[in-house]
Specification:
- 50% of the residues lie in helices and 17% in strands.
- By secondary structure, the chain is of the alpha/beta class.
- It has a single domain (4-157), classed as Toll/interleukin-1 receptor homology (TIR) domain (Rossmann fold), CATH 3.40.50.
- α5 (81-97) links the parallel β3 (66-73) and β4.
- The chain is globular and about 45 Å long.
- The relative contact order is 0.16.
């Protein structure tokens, strides 16, 4: 855990990582509103963030400047190169800065994220097919960090069936 001298430098209380197409107008939108109303300084990207392939310096700074990261894993999270790169930086900040990371499994089983099965397997098949453009080492880091994040204690939100 970060020392109190480091914790005084946090710009945000919470950084939210999520696949916008899956959750922005529903779960993460409501969660952001609730946190904001409670006075929790929360970073949530805008509709414009994520249009490119590389994480911008400002987004990396927001991750580094957050005490807590909430990673909302949804069915199509692994389709997004942006989300996977964001997760790499979040997990690095956990190790180097003592940032707290809490996964939220939104309509996806934690074991799917951990083992990269189902939609996560399909996403990785696509990423691996473009391997030279992405890089096999980068894909390996994504897989390792998805597993690490899925092993953290968090919340599992399921649909009622």
């Amino acid at each position: 855990m970060a020392s109190s001298s480091i914790s005084n430098s946090w710009v945000y209380d919470v950084f939210m990582s999520f696949r916008g197409e899956d959750t922005r107008k529903h779960f993460t939108g409501h969660l952001y509103t609730a946190l904001h109303r409670a006075g929790v300084r929360t970073f949530r990207d805008s509709e414009e963030v994520g249009k490119g392939e590389d994480i911008s310096a400002s987004l990396m700074g927001a991750i580094q400047g957050s005490r807590i990261s909430l990673v909302v894993f949804s069915e199509n999270y692994a389709d997004s190169i942006w989300c996977l790169d964001e997760l790499l930086h979040i997990m690095a900040c956990r190790e180097t800065l003592g940032q707290m990371v809490f996964p939220i499994f939104y309509h996806v089983e934690p074991s799917v994220v951990r083992r990269q099965t189902s939609t996560f397997a399909a996403a990785f098949q696509k990423h691996e097919a473009t391997g030279p453009d992405i890089g096999t080492e980068r894909i390996s880091w994504w897989r390792t960090n998805l597993q690490k994040a899925a092993n953290l204690s968090g919340w599992h939100l399921k649909t009622d069936q």
